[in-house]
Amino acid sequence: MRLTNVFFLFTFLLIGTTVKAQQEKQPLREVLQSIEKQFSVSFTYTDENVENVLVEQLPTNLTLTQVLTFLSNQTGLLFTQLDQRFITISRPLLKKTITVCGILEDNETHEKIVGATIQAGDKFVVSDKDGYFELNDLDDESVLLIKSLGYEAVSVAARSLVDKPCTVFSLVLQPSYLSEVTITNYLTTGIVKKIDGSLSIQTQDLGILPGLTEPDVLFTIQALPGIQSIDETVSNINVRGGTHDQNLVLWDGMKMYQQGHFFGLISAFSPYLTKEVNLVKNGTSAMHSDGVSSTIDIQSDDEVTDVFTGGAGINMIDLDLLAKIPVSPKVSLHLSGRKSIADIVETPTYRSYYDRAFRNTDVTSNSNDTLQTGEQFHFYDFSTKLLYDISDKDKLRVSFLKIHNSIEYEETETVNGTPESKVSSLEQQNLAGGVTYSRLWNTNVRTTGQWYLSNYDLNATNFDILNDQKLDQENQVLDMGIKLDARVRLNDHLDLLSGYQFYEVGVSNLEDINNPPFYRLKKTVLRTHVVFSEASYTSPSGYTNVRAGVRGNYFSKFGEIRIEPRLSLNHKLRESLSIELLGEVKSQTTTQIIDFQNDFLGVEKRRWVMANEEDIPIITSKQLSAGLHFHKKNLLISMEGYGKWVNDIITSSQGFQNQFQYVRSTGSYTTLGIDFLINKRFSKINTWLSYSLAKSTYTFNELIPPSFYSNLDIRHRATVGVSYQSKHFDFSAGVNWHTGRPYTEPVSPNSVVDSEINYEDPNTSRLANYWRVDFSANYRFQFNKHIRVITGFSVWNLLDHENIIDAYYQLDNDDQLIYSQRNALRFTPNVMFRVEF
Question: Which of 19, 211, 516, 519 is least surrounded, with the fewest CB atoms within 10 Å of its CB?
Fold first, then answer.
């Protein structure tokens, strides 16, 4: 554990050099911004009332009323809550009284606005038929709040209206849709459970989680019940018994076919440019298809910024940069980039990840006569977004993202007494770009259109020097489409969303061998037309929320139509107790097949293929779940039972490494389970316990036996965690435990018969139970008015427990049985340093 001591010493030395710059108080303006996000409120005030005002850090777990009282005591200012959303800030002492007036009109039509409310402290009036209002005997420190149904609220200092003709205020239309949030701080801060059953991860507010120095959206969702990665990667996320390719992963509305760096060990999406991640396990909106297991919708920041902000950070794997650049009042540019640092320095963290990623692959498995003289591995990602608010009603967004991984390694062998060297390589990348235009026609109607393209490319060149053989492999996906939708607010309780989508997906697979000559290229293209519609209803009491929709898919190549109903219902039995019912029918046209022996140097064993309705059918699924949620003050108890039935899967997509490894058959799987979560907060301390019980079973009628446990049948899974948050310091620790995955043992003692492994019934044995303890801590301080510094330290697998995540058997050239296993990450520390400005 000497390495641990070194990293702890490094971190605390770093903190010690900067602690003198620590400020005990923080600007009131920054605190107000944080409160607005946390409680969904809006403050109105004059700049001079909050300028240069400092306050102490807010105690945790306060109600909004308690927060306002705390700030009032700290500053001497008056905080007046006008309604559930708007709060005015003013000075308590009356300077003098004034009279103000104004005229309200629509900024587009210039029609006068009747019946708007204008409030200043405890005084308010309503605009008349000419849009006119007048307020008398106002404190000159007052702030006017102008509100009218369907328009954005306006706040203005009363003193700015004195000694002027009546000011004309042009109000801007604002869409208003039904309430969405039902539970805030689900598991930890920054995770919100919505009325429709989905979970929203708001990265800017996300609390610290064990084992992570920085937010990682794809690792964060694995902390939720019913979701895990059977091999600790983000490229193999399993939701309720499903394989990773059954997850629809979207970035700004575009499907991503690659999601990780280090071939799955690190998420490829910048957490600092990501604004929100929506996770749907069931009850998917009718506007989404594909992904019969889940939808992971990643959305980047969508607000035009008027102030330059940015950041830079480094950890023991990579470095990153972020910039949000205002170009004009209506245009801003967001840039984010990340690159591995292995070409500069190989840290112990990098080496641990490297060994985990490439263990038992061609990169590390060499014959005794082969000399591997070196390897070069690197990754990077780059994203940019142009935001243009053409007008108050029209918005244009242009998004671009590139994800790249590559490795090269040189091998040298002696051929006929002469050393000969060749370089093998593997390159994987996903490029996505899209243009989105939205228009707000009036207070009740918004339309959105998007054109997008997503291109995935995986290439490998593998040399066998001794046999003078070169193998080239390629897997490419080109996904291009358009989406059009309209959201209409029919009344205060009912919304309607309808739209059309067209997408064309082409998949190609290439194998090219020089000796003996062999060439195979297979291309498939599928065009799909989609119409969808769904209605969202909230009862007048707000206790009942229903979203029901239907999606119609027309697969032109097969002349086939599939109808997919969707349902989400949430009803409050009382203020703190609600029930939930979710259901969906979905289909999926792309899947991944796995070839452990031959694919891409053994590093990337999955290749995308397209359904052809012959040996690769369209995957279909049905899912139904019912939940009960109790949420009162600082206690959350949630329980959900579900059934999931997925048909038309193929054996080659399931990763068999037993008697079915080379068998091609079509079947199904069924998963029945219960997800449970209890989350309790105590002031600055947050604790949670999650537990999942699930049974996942295959049915392949052509196999013997036809039914057996799924390769992803993790029967029991539990996580326990605790976190502590204070003004400058955050700490989190947790334990992850689950039963071992199924695998197949050979029959003893007759394990080899006729040069083939004689297996027992499939998946009747299990690996040892998996358990891991993780730890994270970070420290932040305000270096000056504009710069904040964050440093952090984490350990993955703190107790260095050896976890086996896979086991299988092979035969050598002499028909001798060889047992192989893959181990999870061992003790892996990481250190982070970041500057934000």
Answer: 516
